């Protein structure tokens, strides 16, 4: 649902209007009856991933999955 308020009302009721926005309403702020701004809930947009941007930046050693030496394993188990 959308509610329209004047600039004067928006100044006086800003906290209340924010509560309504958080609850999912949209608020239009009008000056002399003409809409000039819209308050609406903020929706975080995930960044678009671009495949292949790390090509050539990461190297994996051929022995990365070899068993760890005993002295290092002992450090994890201690």
Instruction: Quote the beta fraction.
Output: 15-25%
State the end-to-end distance: 60 Å
Give the strand line-up of the largest sheet. 1-2-3
Shape: elongated
**Any idea what the radius of gyration is?**
28 Å
Query: In CATH terms, what is the fold-level topology of the domain at 2-39?
Result: YefM-like fold
Helical content class: 25-40%
- Please name the CATH architecture of the domain at 2-39: 3-Layer(aba) Sandwich
Low-confidence stretches: none
Major beta sheet summary:
3 strands, mixed
Number of H- or I-type helical stretches: 3
Protein structure class: alpha+beta
Task: Spell out the blueprint of helices and strands.
Blueprint (H helix, E strand, L loop, with lengths): L1 E5 H6 L1 H9 L3 E6 L2 E6 L30 H8 L1
